[in-house]
Design a protein that fits this description.
By secondary structure, the protein is mainly α. The chain folds into two domains: 90 residues; 135 residues, no CATH class. It has nine helices and two strands, in the order ααααααββααα. The protein has a two-stranded antiparallel ribbon. α7 packs across α9 and α8 packs antiparallel against α9. The radius of gyration is 21 Å and the shape is globular.
Length: 230
Amino acid sequence: MWSQEARALLGARLQLKRQVQQARQFVRGHLRAIGVELGQVTGKKWLVAAEAAVTARGGVLGLSLTAMLEACHALGKQVSVLDKEIRRLVRQDAPCRRMMTAPGVGLLSALALRASLDDAERFGRSAEVGPYLGLTPSRWQTGKTDHRGPITKQGDSLVRAYLYEAATSLLERQKRDCPLRRWGLAQQERLGKRRTRVAVARKLAVLMHRLWRSGETFDWNRGMEASKIH
C-alpha cells in the first residue's frame, strides 16, 4: 500500500507539472503572436513578466491569458503541497535516505525507485534492476547475427526519467568526485551525452538497490568502483 500511495503521489505531481507547462506554453504562444517576447526568464520571474505583459495588453486576450496565469498559480500551489508530502515520506523512510547518499540522487529519484521496486529482496542480484527498469539495450539474435539496439524501455517510465535526471546531475552539476562520475565522463567522448547518461542512470539504479539491500550508505572516501556496478 505504501508503494501504491507513493506512486500515486509522484504521478499526481507529474500531471500537475505538465498542466503548468501547457498553460505557460499557451500564454507564451499567444504573447509571441502579438510580438511580445518574455526572453529567457523562468520560474517566478517568468510569471511576473507574463503578468505585466498581459496586464498591459488588456482586452479579451488579456482576460483569457490572465485566467491561464491564475491557473498556473493555483497548480503551482498544489505542486508545492505534494512536494512537501514527498519530503515527509522520504525523511521517514530509511531506504530512501540511504539511496540519497549516492551521488546525483535526490528526493524524486529515490522515492520513485523505492516505490517501483517495492521490496529490495525481489531481486537476488542488484544487476537485475537495470533490465527490470528497461535501462539495458535490446538485443536481436539469430544464428548469424547479434544486434544490439536502443534500451528496451520496459517497466516504469517515470523512474527512468528521474534516474536520467540524476545521471545528468551527477555528470554536469556534481562537484565532488567519485569513480562513477569519472567513468561517465570518460564514456562521453565515445558514446555521446545521451547514451552516457542512460548508462550512468543504469549504474545508479544498481548502486541504489545495493545500498538499499545492504543497509549501507555511500562512502565517498572509499567510493564504489564503477567496474563493480554492472
